[in-house]
Design goal:
Blueprint: H1 2-11, E1 14-23, E2 26-37, E3 40-49, E4 63-70, E5 75-80, H2 85-92, E6 101-107, E7 111-118, H3 119-131, E8 134-141, E9 157-159, E10 163-168, E11 171-177, E12 185-188, E13 191-194, H4 198-202, H5 216-314, E14 320-327, E15 346-353, H6 356-367, E16 372-384, E17 387-396
Parallel strand pairs: 1-4, 4-8
Antiparallel strand pairs: 1-2, 2-3, 5-7, 6-7, 9-10, 10-11, 12-13, 14-15, 15-17, 16-17
């Protein structure tokens, strides 16, 4: 799993390989693009262009790829298999200065091949590719990458851009240079491709296999690969940092809006609570005032009320029954938000009379009491046969005697 993540981090899902060669003294580039899913290359496409600038039609910007240099600037010779690479180079190119050349050795059981290319030529070619937004991960020389595909080929000869290869199993037994090659379709497992693109296709193996060598070519490849890793790390790290920064800003904005909304709600609730508190304090103050009024009324009139009630009921005829007898009656219903209004020094009497004559005599008797200033009949109405309801209001004197 970590290997897949690392591979996707470095390469993404698009892969590419190119072979830079010459046909009839003209530069030609054979290329292959592919996708990688579940560890296998899919959607393999091949193409051919006549200049580096035209690669942009097939490669997106900053596309990475492996390069094979197989032009007429690359010299290839066959040699017997010496143990040392330097002995092979000395045998094939006795007078060459290794400070000025890259070299690569392709070994088999009974023979080997040596390829050399001037450093200035290879470096300028890689620089030209990178100037056209193509990242080179590494490069090989000649037809050497085709070794990765030998076990999958069921052919004795392969026609490449620079010559004809003779194959025996998984070994190349001969190489014949020719400028007149006929390209034909070859099959590698279920992949069909022209022989001209076989070297480029074989380079795909370099993505998963990098041979550990200490030659100047391998050192150059190591530098190219590490440069790609640094570039990928920088580019993707910047993107990730930007995404993280944007996400952090969004989270911060969301939290700020949330806190701001909560703060607004708290302020609103505080305003409501303060208003209700003020309202409660006002009502409590009004209630205390009313309680004080009622207390004063009760204190001042409790003894008088008993005296008045006794005198009123003492002279009451049997034909009269009382329903209401209230000292200092209220003028309006008591409400929490209103001032208590009452008739001071007055007595409200309500009841039922079954005799009009007895009622008249009782009124006269009440008017004769020394503490009664006035008796007002507010209501006397027929209710049933020989029965009438009445309502009296008696004004009493403050200086009355008990």
């Amino acid at each position: 799993m970590l290997e897949k993540i690392s591979s996707f981090w470095l390469y993404g899902s698009n892969y590419g390989c190119i072979e830079y060669t010459t046909l009839d003294n003209q530069e030609v580039i054979f290329g292959v693009t592919a996708s990688k899913k579940k560890g296998e290359y899919t959607s393999i496409n091949s193409f051919e262009v006549d200049s580096i600038k035209n690669l942009s039609s097939y490669f997106p910007k900053n596309q990475h790829c492996y390069l094979t240099i197989n032009s007429d600037k690359v010299l290839i010779k066959e040699s017997e298999a010496f143990e040392s690479d330097l002995d092979i180079i000395a045998n094939c190119f006795p007078s060459i200065s290794l400070d000025d050349f890259y070299y690569e050795i392709l070994r088999f059981d009974t023979n080997c091949y040596a390829a050399v290319c001037r450093k200035s030529y290879a470096d300028n070619l890689i620089k030209s590719l990178e100037e056209n937004a193509i990242t080179i991960l590494g490069f090989s020389l000649g037809f050497f990458p085709i070794k990765n595909s030998l076990t999958f080929l069921n052919q004795n000869t392969i026609s490449t851009s620079r010559g004809l290869l003779e194959i025996d199993g998984d070994s190349i037994t001969g190489f014949k240079k020719t400028s007149d090659c006929d390209f034909y379709d070859v099959s590698i497992e279920d992949i069909k491709i022209k022989s001209s693109h076989l070297i480029a296709l074989s380079c795909l193996s370099n993505y998963s296999y990098i041979e550990a060598k200490t030659t100047k070519l391998s050192i150059k490849n190591s530098k190219l690969f590490h440069f790609h890793k640094q570039k990928i790390f920088f580019r993707k790290s910047v993107r990730i940092a930007a995404v993280v920064f944007i996400i952090a800003l969004l989270i911060n904005a969301f939290l700020f809006n949330s806190y701001f909304t909560d703060l607004g709600q708290l302020k609103q609730q505080n305003t409501i609570v303060t208003a209700k508190k003020d309202q409660y304090s006002k009502r409590l103050n009004d209630l205390e005032k009313k309680e004080e009024i009622v207390t004063n009324i009760l204190k001042s009139g409790s003894s008088k009320a008993s005296f008045y009630i006794n005198r009123i009921t003492y002279n009451k005829p049997i034909s009269i029954s009382l329903n209401v007898l209230t000292f200092n009656p209220t003028l309006k219903a008591i409400r929490a938000d209103k001032i208590i209004e009452y008739d001071q020094n007055k007595i409200l009497v309500e009841g039922i009379s079954t005799s009009k004559d007895d009622f008249s005599k009782w009124i006269t008797a009440l008017e004769s009491l020394e503490w009664v200033e006035l008796v007002s009949v507010n209501n006397y109405g027929f209710q049933a046969i020989n029965t009438s309801s009445f309502s009296l209001l008696i004004n009493v004197s403050d200086e009355s005697k008990k």
